[in-house]
């Protein structure tokens, strides 16, 4: 048997485990979560801060140097020229050191942020692989894509601002206030008086900004879902001349995005404008105040420049914080957004469950009931049957009767609400499903191909197989003629969703992929539905050869395709209505006979 490679390991890396734990511990505190996701990188961030302090020092020293030079030029003392030269040399040295120290600072913080960004996305992807099929059925793929790409990007943007802008703002304010309190307690008290104004403005606006940003993010997720659905539907839309209708539908969604975005922009603009005006007024008052006390002889002319520069710096820093509030709100909202995935407990947990190395293929349903979460009535009730190893069982019945549900129970996508599904007399609920699924192959109704060569699509999930084995699979799947007609043969690239191939060709590649796994249990869910009559006949012959010694479960609406099945199960009214060979059921003239007559 060909062994599988790259089996999905549901065990997270230590850093990814730590990320999950951080989200759990700080579920209701997004700020703590944001800080916590950098656990393990604190040393890098510490040294990044040190080099940030060094590289930013010219900004803090410049006002002092300017004041010294102005005072020296004004006093015109004996050492005035020397004082000017020394101060110029000092500031030149401090400015030039910015290049290497800024580079080191950037390397340290950027490497940290990018690493955490990768780890977040990797953890999200692994979590998505763990979440149940029911979860994925309920959650739109566009919304998940938005969380993985857009929300993680927003967190990265917030982190960048924290380690560059906010850090710089905090240090500039601390240094400015430190110098001022050293120089003049009176001026310091005046400076501190501006802080309550900033706090009041932030409190008044932060709630609205957070709410508007949340509304905008949700609208963007909805739009992402709608756009993906629109792209998928383009062939159907074009075939039915519904382009204008689809365009109008997306336009309505875009109008909603525009309205929510405009609300967010206006509140941000209003916020920024009010804060800017308030601080400019304070800066003007500061200029007048320091000018007045200079006239009275309490401070020198140079100190007027020093205080005005520092006050202008403080005003600019506080205004910067206010400007950053929307980015902070978006980042924290995104932390909550990805927490929706990471904190979900609707997972397929295989840990500490029994791993199986071999499957014989016996399948038993013992008093199985199954009911969907959003359904009032069970779809399957007290279902009992046994499939022996190597048998081919076909499931037929009306749409919605539960045929595909039975297949999903066998695959392990769903767990029985009551009763047991047994694989080789072992309850599937006790098995490590990853080890079990390495022995099965599934061909869904709609072929799922990825953008790569035909070869890679066929051998997906297997070790490299021999050229002879690949040719045997291609021949068995009736793909020879297709491969020979393509310019690059089996190395021909498949476009997105395999749109450069016909439906029948895509399905045959999907079937070839299943057989490349050499499974013991084969699941065919309407596997021949996309084939034309000629291809269907040929591939049925191939299937009959390839299902030998394999337990095969087939769902088919076209009853002519299941004539050679060992047994046929008629599913209806929540259970097994009839069970027997094709001839037995036709002779019985029951439900199967009626279904057959409808197709004749």
From TrEMBL:
Gene3D superfamilies for this protein: ABC transporter type 1, transmembrane domain, P-loop containing nucleotide triphosphate hydrolases
Family matches, as InterPro entries: AAA+_ATPase (IPR003593), ABC1_TM_dom (IPR011527), ABC1_TM_sf (IPR036640), ABC_transporter-like_ATP-bd (IPR003439), ABC_transporter-like_CS (IPR017871), P-loop_NTPase (IPR027417), Type_1_exporter (IPR039421)
Record flagged with keyword Secreted: no
GO CC annotations on file: plasma membrane
ABC transporter domain mapped to chain residues: 363-598
SMART domains in alphabetical order: AAA
Keyword Transmembrane: yes
CDD domains: ABC_6TM_exporters (cd07346)
Main location: membrane
Transmembrane segments: 41-61, 81-99, 162-182, 188-207, 269-295, 307-328
Compartments, as annotated in UniProt: Cell membrane
Alphabetical keyword list: ATP-binding, Membrane, Nucleotide-binding, Transmembrane, Transmembrane helix
PROSITE patterns assigned: ABC_TM1F, ABC_TRANSPORTER_1, ABC_TRANSPORTER_2
GO molecular function, one term: ATP binding
Domain of life: Bacteria
Membrane disposition: Multi-pass membrane protein
Protein name: ABC-type multidrug transport system, ATPase and permease component
Organism: Clostridium saccharoperbutylacetonicum N1-4(HMT)
